[in-house]
């Protein structure tokens, strides 16, 4: 996955997204499908990875 934020206030936008009832329902469905990677940094959900290939 690649994520690119386009906006002015990432933290505020993430708080708005987390407060959205539809997003909360989606997370209830999808969170059980995820497993945390053992080598992720402390406090992170996702692990940073080296880009293997890139296409435009």
Number of helices: 2
Helix percent reads 25-40%
Strand content: under 5%
Order of helices and strands: HH
Oligomer: single chain
Task: Describe the global form.
Answer: extended
Q: Give the integer mean of the pLDDT values.
A: 88
Q: Whole-number radius of gyration?
A: 14 Å
Helix/strand/pairing class, anyone? mainly alpha
Report, as a whole number of angstroms, the end-to-end distance.
15 Å
Regions with little confidence, pLDDT below 50 for 5+ residues: none
Q: Tell me about the biggest sheet? A: none
Number of beta strands: 0
Question: Keywords for this structure?
Answer:
extended, 56 residues, mainly alpha, 2 helices
């Amino acid at each position: 996955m690649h994520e690119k934020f386009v906006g002015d206030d990432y933290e505020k936008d993430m708080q708005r997204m987390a407060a959205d009832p539809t997003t909360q329902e989606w997370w209830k469905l999808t969170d059980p499908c995820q497993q945390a990677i053992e080598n992720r940094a402390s406090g992170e959900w996702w692990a940073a990875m080296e880009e293997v290939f890139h296409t435009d």
